[in-house]
Amino acid sequence: MTNVTLQAIAGDNNLILSPPSFALVKAMADEENELQETELSYDQKKEIAKWFLLNAPAGEINYVAKDLKEVLSDEEVYNEAAMEAFPVYNKSHMICLEMPSRAGDVIISSYSEITENEYLDPRTAQVAIVDHVKQICTKVRPAYDEELPSSYIEEFRSALDAEIQRYVSESYPKGVSTVNCTKGKDADGPGMDFELVVIITARKLSPQNFCNGSWRSVWNIDFQDESQVLDIKGKVQVGAHYFEEGNVELDAKKEFQDSTIFQSADDCAIAIANIIRHHETEYLGALEVAYSKLPDNTFKDLRRKLPVTRTLFPWQNTLQFSLTREVEKELGLGNSRNGAFGLKIHLKSNVQQTSIYKRQKKNECINRASLQVISNVLTSVKDVRPKGTRDSSSFRSSDKQPFL
Known about the structure:
- This protein is an alpha+beta fold and 404 residues long.
- The chain has 2 domains: 96-145, Ribosomal protein S3 C-terminal domain, CATH 3.30.1140.60; 149-404, Alpha-Beta Complex (Aspartate Aminotransferase, domain 1), CATH 3.90.1150.
- Helices cover 41% and strands 25% of the residues.
- β3 (96-98) and β4 (105-107) form a beta hairpin.
- α5 runs parallel beside α6 and α6 packs antiparallel against α9.
- Residues 385-404 are annotated as: Disordered.
């Protein structure tokens, strides 16, 4: 092997670099071969792509898919990952698609799923056939009799659907709702249990302003004929994403449980709607209070309370006295031999502390702005102003209450 030296001049010193030994070159080559051998397999690439798609914030999966397609540079891997991820994402986010010919809107959820691409809209008694990747409804067909609930169940379902629609129109600027029967849809009269599911979804998408938000709530109502009780379980999920000069994401979840008495279809509908209204409004109010306190409590605790010197810098008096004279007096430097050197060090420390303080203040302003945007998104998704609740005459008696 030819003896070669590389010489680099740095100031007055010469740096001599010897060529790598044969053993080192061989070790580097072996490591490179191992890296090539450990390249991700087809299935690993697909699973990673699915993870990115499934974890996209509300309304942003298409942006993620576009970038992911360019990164993968493999059409087959992307298409298979998209075919598996989009249906799961659409159902979990309960997206709403408009049916052709303005026949109505259908919410994509596991509660309305008939087949992988067919979803029932019980309000119009139609089945929407959807393209999950394009997120569009391609066509509709009339629902078959076996896909619809019995006339007895439909009486309770339609009454509850009307009350929920009224509540959503009052409280959600862009909200959509549906009521599905998930159990006992063939019941033909009293004496049988059945279950209805209320789905409410609303989204506020504003990518041009770097913020998106969504509201999803699912309420399972179990009609128990023997005990004459309605067992109500609910789950609310709120998401907001703000990504201007940073990345702030909110993912809040809350579960509820309540009950009321089994009554007529209209009275049950009013009682259930009042319970849902009460819990959702109370929860959103609690969220707003919690996030309004973050800047003054949580973020304040995260910041360093004192600089490295453990003494507060008198920012309010910086224009009223000479910084050099006050520092000399405070350090007791005077005309001592080491006064200039000590002053130089102390002033350098103060400059660094000033830079740190300004940077912390800037971050705090960004955090405050992010929280304000999230609060605005939440307010636009769900209006929390008190709304009047409708009451049923059956609740005026002392033995029947809308809440148990």
